[in-house]
Amino acid sequence: MSSYSKSIREGFFGRAFAVIGAANAVSAAFEAGRRPKPRDLQVLGIAPDAFDHIGR
After folding, report:
1. What is the pLDDT of residue 26?
2. Residue 37 and residue 25: Cα distance in Å, rounded?
3. How far apart, in whole angstroms, are the C-alpha atoms of residue 48 and residue 38?
4. 5-54, pLDDT tens digit by residue?
5. How far does CA 46 lie from the centroid of its chain?
6. Domain count of the chain?
7. Mapping DSSP to helix (H, G, I), strand (E, B) and coil, where does residue 39 land?
8. Is 41 buried (19+), middle (13-18) or exposed (0-12) by CB count in 10 A?
9. Helix, strand, coil content of the chain in percent (nearest 5)
10. Separation of first and last alpha carbons in the chain
């Protein structure tokens, strides 16, 4: 792996794409009445255990 692709994946743009993807996944799961994946919640800074206590 080149250092350029590694810096993109682990840098600002990689983090930004991860947050956007996680937000999209959590939103879709919430709208469908499903529980989002714990990893997506963690990327967004939400504790998976605390998600159950969020009012709808």
Report:
1. 95
2. 8
3. 5
4. 666 666 888 889 999 999 999 999 999 999 999 999 999 999 999 887 87
5. 9
6. 1
7. helix
8. buried
9. 70, 0, 30
10. 44
